[in-house]
Design a protein that fits this description.
By secondary structure, this protein is mainly alpha-helical. It has helices spanning 3-11, 27-34, 52-63, 68-77, 81-95, 107-111, 119-123, 126-139, 209-221, 223-227, 255-273, 277-280, 288-313, 315-323, 341-367, 374-380, 413-421, 426-429, and strands at 99-102, 113-114, 117-118, 142-147, 156-159, 165-168, 173-178, 181-184, 192-195, 333-336. α3 crosses α4 (68-77), α4 packs across α9 (209-221) and α9 (209-221) packs antiparallel against α11 (255-273).
Length: 430
C-alpha cells in the first residue's frame, strides 16, 4: 500500500479518481508559476461596499459551488476591528499554546528547538496555521499548500487565498482556480491541505460567515444607515410590514445608530467566542468561570479541528520522509494543550492522589492474594506511560521495560520455599 493510500486511510476516504486538469506538481503548472514569482493564486479582488442583498447572492453562489463572493465578504469582515481582534485572539492564541506530541516516530525531531524556533514551526508556521484556522471556522473550509523547501527533507505549509476555491457537485471534488487554470484538489496527496471543519459535505452551510456577515453589514450598510442618505427623490426599500414617515426630530435620533452598532458587535462576539462577558466584563463577570469554560470549549473546537487536519494531511508526510511509509501508522501526532493553569494544577493534584491510592490498593490487595491492574488505572486516569503509542496505558515494547525489583515485603514464604528447593538457601541452613 502506497503513501497516498495510507493517508487516505487516515482520512477515512477512498482514493478519488483523477480530476480534470493538470496536477499541482506537473511541469506545466511549475513553468507558469516560475514566470509569476511562484505564485499560485491570482490577484484577489476587494469589494468595499456590502449590502444584505450581497449576502443572499453569496449564499446562492456558494450552494452552486462558487466560493468567490463568500470569501470576498470574509476578507472584508477581517477589516472590522471586533472581528479581527476576536479571531486574532482565538486562533493566534491556539497556535501559540504548548504542543503535545504523541507517537513513536518523529516526536523527538518535532520537539527539537533552536532558541525560539522548532522543527514543527518550520513545517507549520504559526501565522499560516492561525490564518487557516480562522478561515476554517468562519467559512467552514480553508486551503493550503505544502511547498517543497530546497535543502531540507520536509516542506512548509502555506495558506492559500480561499476566494479561488470551487466545488463541483457532479464530481464531489474541490478545484482551485489558479494562475495555471483549474487544478483538482486531492486532500492528503502531499501537496494540498484541505481543512474542512464545517464537515465533508457542503461545509459552508455549517460555518459562521452568514451570521457574521449579517451583523457586519448591518453595522455599516443596513437599513438605518440608508436613512442617512436621505435627499431628493430618495427611495427606501422597507422590510415587509414596515412604514416610513417623516417625524419631527427631538435631537436624539443619533442614538439609534449606536444601538444598532452595539447590537451587531454583541452578535459578532457571541458568534465567535460564544459569550460576551469575558470581552466586556460588567454584570456577571464575578461568575465568569462559566463564560471562560465556554471560551475554552471554543478553543477545543477550533484547535481540535486544526490538529486533525495536521495529523492526517501534513505530519504523515513528514514522518514518511524521515522513517519511511511503514512508520506512518505510528507516526507523530499533535494536540494543542489548551488546559488552563488552574486545571493543570488540579490535574497534577489528581495524579498525586492516584499514585497514593495505587500504593494503598496494592498493599490491601496483596493481603488477599490479588494484584492491582496498573494498566487499567493508567488508562482510566490518563497517566502518561513511556513507550505507550496507542494510549492504552501499556508500553508497546514491554521487552524493553524491566520488571520492578521486588522489595523485602514482596518476598513471601512461598518464594523462600522455592529458593530452598532450588538450593539457593543452603547458606542459610549451614
Amino acid at each position: 500500500m502506497g503513501i497516498r493510500e495510507r493517508v487516505a486511510a487516515l482520512l477515512g476516504v477512498t482514493t478519488p479518481r483523477a480530476g480534470y486538469g493538470p496536477e499541482l506538481d506537473s511541469a506545466a503548472v511549475n513553468r507558469i508559476r516560475s514566470m509569476l514569482g511562484n505564485n499560485l493564486a491570482p490577484m484577489p479582488t476587494t469589494q468595499i461596499r456590502w449590502y444584505l442583498s450581497d449576502l443572499e447572492t453569496a449564499a446562492h453562489n456558494a450552494d452552486a459551488g462558487d466560493m468567490t463572493m463568500v470569501c470576498r465578504l470574509w476578507r472584508a469582515m477581517r477589516r472590522d476591528g471586533n472581528i479581527q481582534g476576536l479571531y486574532s485572539t482565538l486562533t493566534g492564541g491556539i497556535v501559540g499554546l504548548p504542543k503535545k506530541f504523541y507517537g513513536r516516530y518523529g516526536v523527538e525531531e518535532l520537539r527539537a528547538r533552536n532558541g525560539t524556533r522548532s522543527t514543527f514551526d518550520d513545517l507549520v508556521p504559526p501565522a499560516e496555521a492561525a490564518l487557516m484556522a480562522a478561515d476554517g471556522d468562519a467559512l467552514g473550509f480553508a486551503i493550503g499548500e505544502l511547498v517543497p523547501v530546497p535543502g531540507r527533507s520536509y516542506p512548509r505549509l502555506v495558506r492559500l487565498e480561499p476566494e479561488f476555491l470551487r466545488y463541483r457537485w457532479i464530481e464531489n471534488r474541490w478545484y482551485y482556480s489558479s494562475v495555471a487554470g483549474p487544478l483538482p484538489i486531492t486532500p492528503g496527496d502531499g501537496r494540498w491541505v484541505l481543512h474542512l471543519p464545517g464537515g465533508t459535505i457542503a461545509p459552508w452551510l455549517n460555518a459562521k460567515w452568514p451570521a457574521l456577515g449579517r451583523s457586519f453589514i448591518n453595522k455599516r450598510e443596513g437599513f438605518i444607515a440608508s436613512l442617512l442618505a436621505w435627499g431628493i427623490n430618495t427611495v427606501l426599500e422597507l422590510p415587509p410590514g414596515w412604514k416610513a414617515s417623516l417625524l419631527e426630530s427631538n435631537g436624539r435620533g443619533y442614538e439609534v445608530f449606536q444601538a444598532d452598532i452595539d447590537t451587531s458587535d454583541k452578535e459578532i462576539a457571541i458568534t465567535i467566542i460564544g459569550q460576551i462577558v469575558t470581552v466586556e466584563g460588567g454584570v456577571g463577570f464575578q461568575n465568569s468561570d462559566v463564560f471562560r469554560a465556554i471560551h475554552d470549549n471554543r478553543k477545543k473546537e477550533v484547535g481540535g479541528s486544526l490538529s486533525y487536519t495536521l495529523n492526517t494531511q501534513v505530519l504523515p508526510y513528514y514522518v514518511a520522509g524521515i522513517y519511511g511509509e511503514d512508520a506512518i501508522d505510528e507516526g507523530a501526532c499533535i494536540e494543542y494543550d489548551i488546559t488552563p493553569a488552574r486545571d493543570a494544577q488540579a490535574e497534577g493534584n489528581a495524579m498525586v492522589a492516584v499514585a497514593n491510592a495505587m500504593g494503598l490498593l496494592r498493599e490491601q490487595l496483596k493481603q488477599s492474594g490479588r494484584e492491582l491492574d496498573v494498566d487499567e488505572l493508567t488508562t482510566r486516569y490518563g497517566i502518561p506511560i513511556k513507550g505507550d503509542v496507542d494510549g492504552d496505558g501499556v508500553p508497546e515494547d514491554k521487552a524493553d521495560v524491566p520488571d520492578p525489583e521486588p522489595s523485602q515485603d514482596d518476598i513471601t514464604d512461598e518464594d523462600d520455599a522455592d529458593e530452598l528447593d532450588a538450593g539457593e538457601g543452603a547458606g542459610v541452613l549451614n
